[in-house]
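Q: Sequence in, structure out?
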Amino acid sequence: MNFSVTSSMTVIAAAIDWVTPVTFLAFTALVGILTIIFTRNDNRSTNEGFFLGGRTLTFPVIAGSLLLTNLSTEQMVGLNGDAFSYGLSVMAWEVVAVAALVMMALFFLPRFLRVGITTVPEYLEQRFARSTGSIANIIFLVAYMLILLPIILYTGAKGLISILDIRTLLPIEDPMVLLYVIVGGIGLIGAIYALFGGLKALAVSDLINGVGLLIGGFMIVYFALDYVGAGEGIFRGLAKVVETEPKMFNSLGGPNQAVPFTTLFSGVLIINVFYWCTNQQIIQRTLGASSLSEGQKGVLLTGLLKLIGPLYLVLPGLIAFHLFRQGLLPEVLKADGVTIDSSLAYGSLVRKVLPPLLTGFFAGVMVGAILSSFNSALNSTCTLFSLGFYKTYFRPNATDQQVVASGKWFGWIITAGSIVIAPLLDRTESIFSYLQTMNGIYFIPLLAVVLGGMLSRRAPARAANWTLIGGVVLIAVGYFVPPFDKIVKSMNEYMFLGTVFLYLLLMIFVWGEVAPRDTEYTPKDANKIDMTPWKHTGLCSVLLLVIVAIIYIYFADTSVFSETLVPMSGLIPGE
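A: Exactly. Output:
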């Protein structure tokens, strides 16, 4: 009898072990099949068809694609890890993004769509000169190739290995070899999506994955709160977390925390404005809008979705902290049993509360988020190369088919390079901090030049070129060259970036007054799409900003400014 029971339990355990990868593969395959069905009749042989989805994207597709392009493992794991360490104040990366999206809908998007551009460097070429567009192209390409794409592959592979427990499924003992195998698999699948499907296929798959991500993210919150509630319901679970850890639910970050409140109006806001208004990887979706109205609705719907982002990007980290303080999540401790690794908080919570039968679905959702970010960055990289260099310098008379083909070949080369580089990031101490630091180097100069070009019609190309080059050098020196690096750390990185941005923007304006261009810049209407704005854009923008203010006021505790706070990750069970 004992042998029979033991054998049955072994069979059930083995079945459960394979349920996760099977459900994962089923969900991933479903997304691929639906994408093929919805885009099978699309024309992907022209520049606009491949790079902009034929300018046919509607607002649900734009919003879903923007949301999924933004979300990846570094957000799900990194932001929840920061919430575990510092509390609710890290929601700034989600909530402040709403202000940037409002600016995109009201100010940036109409100007981009009116001139009919495909890339941000193309806009800078129209506004200033070919040299300006080429410099911006180089900055984007280098940043995407050496920073963004490898980080997406690395964090995606690490998260997938953890959630699916791939070490037990594949007979690979060397962790670095395993990392290369998973990185290669993700890179290959992402390249197939990006290089054969074009932007429309990416946007459709993003929309499907977006629905799955919202379901999966809220699913984790539900099971986590239900676990804390111990059978009394999720609302009781939430009440327990709030009652036990009240200081964690403060929207205002103190001076010693990751996102001090004062930086919301400087570096944090500026980084968000660049990301949502001028980052090629993101705004390429909006540039493919079928009309200005559809683009504005898509951007503002994204803003509404970002308001609920903290529920699955911040709240799980707070719940993980509560469980850790109760001694129920020891996996967050490193091998020494004392040091806390907040990057393990989200994965540990998922394994703690999620039923095995749902783990495969959640892993599929996570892979969808990973692939979305990789696909978007790769598609944008191909777009920048094909239209910024191949069409401009190598073959000016190339047909649309030749331009698209050049982008595909370049994409395969970049994919191979990213697969080689990604596992090398395993030596990086904090991948999230590394990403934020490296992004600041090119975010700030590019935003200063785009915004300066829109606000000043007199600024010449020389001002933009020197701002781009000088801005990158200035920030890099501030980050890495002694003794300037110590000065930057003492004043807070985001304050430093805000100060540099204002300096660069002022330089463009002064240059435009002292040595202006011969004639004022006048944008030309490309007449690509209907430019009638959505009639509710202004009202919805105001409502979104009011909600942001209400959220901050409701959770505000000003005592954070009068006491010296230690990061919450310094608290261990029993303290």
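The two ends are 48 Å apart (CA to CA).
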